[in-house]
Each structure stands twice: as structure tokens, then as C-alpha cells.
Design goal:
The chain is mainly α and about 375 residues long. About 75% of the residues lie in helices and about 0% in strands. The protein has helices at about 1-25, 35-50, 50-60, 75-80, 85-100, 105-115, 120-130, 135-150, 155-165, 175-185, 195-205, 210-225, 230-245, 250-260, 265-280, 280-295, 305-315, 315-330, 335-345, 350-370. Helix 8 (about 135-150) packs parallel to helix 10, helix 11 (about 195-205) packs antiparallel against helix 12 (about 210-225) and helix 15 packs antiparallel against helix 16 (about 280-295). The longest helix is centred in the N-terminal third of the chain and has 25 residues, at about 1-25. It is globular, with a radius of gyration of 24 Å.
Length: about 375
């Protein structure tokens, strides 16, 4: 009887452990599960919490790719992932000689510079991409890594936040593992971390692939606030994790704290407007999204949610017209502002003004495409 009870208890314990393991592993992206020696080693190191070593093991696993011919890889991205830096550079430079405006090869050259620890060179390549495509997610996120490696925490957080606001985690195969390695390298072993706030945002990114990083982001953000380490950005990281977990009231409170600390934090205002929308508080949504515009009137990113509230929700074409006139006065080359000014003018029956700004927007779009 005693033996049967022991066997039963052992079976229950195994089932409980399996349940815990399943719950943990099911929250992780398939990117962590790779059927190879390095992939399994990477998973073991990752679950142990050695993120830097895990990232390097995973990248070793990515390098077991087939031999890649140039025709299959004109940007050099596949060769880079396979660990062939010289081949990747040759492919990228060959393509750039034929197509100087191509963005993929330029991004590859930036990644090669990252691997060679030439961070200033990497940033120059990424900036060339961003000069042509200011919202290129890969270039923004890779720039964040380069800036972090240069101990520029503020610049890294700004680049990371701008990239992530576009709703993408990036497309480069190595990107997530670069962030994972960076988080591991920056994590405190003894004493204090170099930037608690930056760590909060790195784990905010990694949460996309594994929900467990949400707790780490919250912990680092809370520590950053207590330490006075970029508290507005720390509150924003905290609010985003709350949002992803459906805690919209707590998220809104965090974003409101962020803008109290930094009244010019446009992205925290935007997130606050999103939470107000989720909570069905239209007037607060209006105040927050208008404040986002006021904090960054030259940033086209905030114009779509502003138009959604003013023109579509409240039908206030006059205020939209006035705000867009201010935007084009600040930046006459803002095609997005000209487009929205034209739509507001059309609603108000001001057809000549609508036609003028509509044409200006088309011309600006065409000029940008041709450069």
C-alpha cells in the first residue's frame, strides 16, 4: 500500500512538473526551438538564464545553412546569417555598385560592422538607410544595438522605441539574438546595471518572443524609476507591459506618470491615448493624442491617430485644419500633413486649399520616391 502511494505521488509530481514546463515553453516563440546541436545548447542556456551564451549558440545554429549562391542572396543577408562575413560584404558591395540606393545591402554592411565591433561604422550604414527610409524597422533596431554597445543608453532607447512603435519586431534573422545577447551582456552580475531603463526596454522587446521577459521588463523599469534612471522612459516600458497583459487602467496610469516626468514625451502621450480609447474615455483620448502632436509636430507618425480622433470621431475639421497648417509651417516637406490638411479643407468646403495641399503632397511623395 505504501509503495503504491509513493508511485502515485511520484506520478502526480511528474505531471505537475510537466504542466509547469509546458506552460513555460508554450509562452515561447518557435525561434527558440531549433533541431540542431547548437540549437538545443542554446535552448538549455536560455532556460538557465545565460542569455548572452544562448544567443551565441543560437547564432552558431543559424550558420549551418547551405552554401548560398550570389543570385540567391544579393543583399548578403543570408551569407551574414551563415557566418560568412567576407562573402556577405562582397555580395552587399556588388549590389550597391549596381543599385546604390538599395537598403538591404546597406543594412547588411551595418550588421557586419556590428559583428566586427565597429559600432561607429555600423551607425553610419544604418543612418544611410534611415535617411532614405526613416521608419525602417531593421535599421532602427540595429541602431539601438550599436548605440547600446557605445554606452549611449538614451540613444538606444530612442531608436528602439521608434522602431517598435511601428508594430514590427524586425525581419533580419539575427536581430532577436543580437538583442538577447545584449541583454545578457548588460545584465548586472555584481553591483548595479549600467542602465536599468535600457534593460527594461530590451526585455520589453524580448517579451514579444517570450512572455517571461515581461516580468523582467517590469522589474527593471521599477528599479530604474527608483534610481532616477530615465524615469519617463521607464514608466513607458512599464505601461507597455501592462497594456500587453490587458491591464489598461494600470497602463494609463503609467503613461500619465511618464508625461508628468517629461511633458514632451510624445510616445507616452500616444500610448496614453490608446489606453483611453480602450477604456472608452474619448475626451482623455483627445487630450492625450493632441498632446502627442504638440510634443512632436514635425513627426508624421502621430498624424494618423490625431486625424482619427479629430476628424472621424469628433468631426472637428476646423481644429484639424489649424493643427495641420501649423505642421506644414514647421516642416513644409511634411507630405502627411499636407494630405491631412487637404482632407480637412475638403470637409470644410475649402476646395482651392484642398487642391493646393493635395497636389503638394503628391509632389513631395514623388520627389522622395525619385531620390
Amino acid at each position: 500500500m505504501r509503495r503504491r502511494l509513493s508511485v502515485l505521488l511520484l506520478a502526480i509530481a511528474i505531471m505537475a512538473l510537466w504542466g509547469v514546463a509546458y506552460q513555460r515553453l508554450s509562452a515561447m516563440s518557435s525561434a527558440f526551438f531549433r533541431v540542431s546541436g547548437p540549437g538545443l545548447r542554446g535552448l538549455a542556456l536560455y532556460l538557465h538564464g545565460d542569455w548572452a551564451a544562448a544567443a551565441r549558440a543560437y547564432r552558431d545554429g543559424l550558420q549551418a545553412w547551405r552554401r548560398i549562391e550570389y543570385a540567391d542572396d544579393p543583399s548578403g543577408a543570408f551569407a551574414l546569417t551563415a557566418g560568412d562575413l567576407s562573402g556577405a560584404e562582397r555580395r552587399a558591395r556588388t549590389t550597391l555598385r549596381l543599385l546604390p540606393a538599395a537598403l538591404g545591402p546597406r543594412t547588411t554592411l551595418g550588421e557586419i560592422a556590428l559583428d566586427r565591433k565597429q559600432y561607429a561604422v555600423a551607425l553610419r550604414h544604418f543612418q544611410e538607410v534611415l535617411d532614405r527610409d526613416p521608419d525602417n524597422v531593421d535599421a532602427l533596431l540595429l541602431s539601438a544595438i550599436a548605440r547600446a554597445r557605445q554606452s549611449d543608453a538614451g540613444g538606444a532607447i530612442a531608436s528602439l522605441s521608434r522602431g517598435l512603435r511601428l508594430g514590427s519586431a524586425g525581419s533580419r534573422a539575427t536581430l532577436m539574438f543580437r538583442v538577447l545577447e545584449l541583454a545578457g551582456d548588460l545584465a548586472p552580475r555584481q553591483g548595479s546595471a549600467r542602465s536599468l531603463c535600457l534593460l527594461a526596454h530590451l526585455h520589453r522587446y524580448l517579451r514579444i518572443f517570450d512572455e517571461a521577459h515581461g516580468e523582467m521588463a517590469v522589474a527593471y523599469a521599477t528599479q530604474a524609476i527608483a534610481a532616477g534612471d530615465r524615469p519617463a522612459d521607464a514608466y513607458m516600458a512599464l505601461g507597455i507591459v501592462h497594456d500587453k497583459r490587458g491591464r489598461y487602467r494600470e497602463a494609463l496610469a503609467a503613461f500619465e506618470r511618464a508625461v508628468t516626468v517629461d511633458p514632451q514625451h510624445a510616445e507616452a502621450y500616444r500610448w496614453g491615448a490608446l489606453e483611453a480609447q480602450r477604456l472608452q474615455e474619448p475626451m482623455r483620448q483627445y487630450r492625450m493624442i493632441r498632446a502627442a502632436f504638440e510634443a512632436a509636430p514635425d513627426d508624421p507618425f502621430y498624424l494618423d491617430p490625431l486625424e482619427d480622433v479629430l476628424l472621424r470621431k469628433f468631426g472637428d475639421a476646423r481644429t484639424m485644419l489649424v493643427l495641420m497648417q501649423r505642421a506644414v509651417a514647421i516642416d513644409p516637406g511634411n507630405a502627411s500633413a499636407h494630405e491631412r490638411l487637404a482632407r480637412a479643407a475638403q470637409v470644410l468646403g475649402e476646395r482651392e486649399q484642398a487642391a493646393q495641399h493635395g497636389k503638394r503632397a503628391v509632389d513631395l511623395r514623388r520627389q522622395r520616391k525619385d531620390t
